[in-house]
Amino acid sequence: MTSEKSTTSAPTSTYRLQLGPGLTLDDAAGLLDYLDRLGVGALYLSPMLTAAPGSSHGYDVVDPTRVSPELGGDTAREALTAKAHALGMGVVADIVPNHMSVVRADANPWWWDVLAHGRKSVYAHYFDVDFDAGPILIPVLGDDGDGGEAALAELTIDGDRLLYHDKGYPLAPGTHAPGDTVAQVHGRQHYRLVSWRRGNGELTYRRFFDVSELAAVRVEDPEVFEAVHAEILRWAAQGRLDGLRVDHVDGLTDPGGYLRRLAERFDGWIVVEKILAPREDLPPSWPVAGTTGYDALRQVCGVFVDPSGEADMTTLALDHGVEVDVAETDARARRHAAHELLRTEVLRIAALLPPRPPRGGGEAAPASVRRRQEAVAELLCAFDVYRSYLPEGERDWARAVRTATERRPDLALDLEAIDRRVRQDPHGEAARRIQQTSGMVVAMGTENTAFYRATRFVALNEVGGDPADFAVTPEEFHDAALRREAAAPYTMTTLSTHDTKRSEDVRARLAALSEVAEGFTEAVRRWTERCALPEPALNLLGWQTLVGAWPIGEERLAGYLIKAAREARLVTSWTDPDPDVEERVRAWPARVFNDTALRGEVVSVVESVREAGWSNSLGQKAVQLLGPGVPDLYQGTELWDLSLVDPDNRRPVDHQARIDLLSRIERGWRPPVDATGAAKLHLVRTCLRARRELRPRGYLPLTASGPAARHALAFARTSTRAAHPDLVVIATRLPLTLADSGGWDRTVLALPWGPGEWTDRLTGRVLAPERGDGPTLARLEEVLDAYPVAVLTRN
User: What share of the chain has pLDDT > 70, as a percent?
Assistant: First the structure.
């Protein structure tokens, strides 16, 4: 998987910046000196190409041929890159090859031309449109239960445009004559404006998930590939681009083929946003350095969770009627995604697979057609990975067919026919669309629905996570790190991203709750009796979120809970919101905060785990930043960050406060572990600068000795300048249990043999060997007295 060029082009680390109206390319350039002082190896930028008007994130590209004017345009990009390179920092760009925004047709020149000229447009093949199915359906009309009929009366004509409120659409040449009614003109277009409710079941173009405002792009076509990537590749040809992050690679028709073409044209570091299921590896034929790091996130966070807390958390969920059978919850959520949210895609696939004709010949009966559609939906729900990649992913495909058949034996013959068709032509349209859509079903069913229903312990409910796997043992953690170093040493690793359900520091505090699960679950029972949310799964999510993200304002918490309730689709949803339920959800934070006794109990629980949460935060940060892979630091997380899912995690970052603290640290200040978060900044600076200096390689798990050995997570690595391991990282696991058992006591860690003394870069303390020539033992009670982590390097 790891291409040879990855070894020379991979940065030592990355720092992710979310560009937008509040952080332009010029603003980013102003942060480069700070990031260089911090030790960052490369600037990692969210999409820079022109996005839909008012975009806050850039993933809704409307024109891939130019840098967004709102971000400062190409002049600002060029200046930013030049300054970064002058400082020795790389530049990594986030690209979106699989979809474009069509929410404002007049902002997207390619889409505008397709609407104006239909299949005769020079851009007709740029989008995945089924022109044989009739006019392009655009689901934008309001719907008061009349299918959007009343909204049609709101259409007007202005020159060569058809208008619906503030949205404009082109009129095809020769379709508007004097005296024509608006309805007549509308009926002559290559498109039809229809009710927004028809988007999930009747669209004639492929979308990004169920978002009708994002139309899929056919980058598998060489001409389309060139058009979409021309600007990006121009930067690379000028030496102004060092790495690429490819968004949602599973959404492409042929991910492997796309990546091979991209690697031929781009001689730099490439990582892909690919969610790996537990124990899944990237296809070895992909010429990329690795993923964007969710697999590492699952392992790093999981090793700080106490497995003994599982029983109490499970009992609480069962007693409150919250689903704990993760597999069954997942299956139901996926079926909803396939049958409701992505019905358009299911119908289009089923149409490629003629149903079995009835006995006696003749055309297939409607029942047979419906059965084939059900078989397609069931197969899409049955993958235990996001998608297969035939022909090399045959085992993943076979397991999905087998699972679907076991779940629905009544569809066995139809599933057998689909399987036979796909195996006979693994590159055919049916095979491509099934694989392309399965990832959408998994993402929408699992991440966006099931994770909001199975809320037993939400620290596990993360992108790429497995809520059924309560904790990761140190042995499992080390094994995963060894595999990463051997197979993908330049893959990205991460703890927080713009897409995570909650930040690393929220998960770290929740991990501390797993150590006191009995007391916490008793508290939740009391709190629920006093002030419950209107749905059990949301109720457990609410209390965990309140403790995990405290202090949090009423408005932030209410906004998050409304989103969570709609994603769960149990009592309200995005398409059919329940006003009464949502009003009760919005009122819940104020009810809790205004109840003095209840608020006091919540604060008391927070205070009981706050320091343990800090310890976990520092521990997971140290092992991520100095472990195998290329660590990414999400903007602002060099201090404590208690953000929740987007848009909460895209709030502005106070970089000046971080710059001021960094200046104090540079003058020799070793901050205490307290609410300022300066200790985390000190750790981040120490780790990033050590990584940039030493460029560590290899991985050697270390095991402590003594009564508290299981609480130490440690490993050693070797720098490019040394023959022996000369970097050791030590982190504290399960700090509350450690304290209850009497602390580190006589626990020691023997450091790897070799010449030179060991120094803790966080404290400056030098560790002397035993008896002059004996092994150097890190006495953990001494080494970890100031910080719950240590970064040791050999002089």
Answer: 97
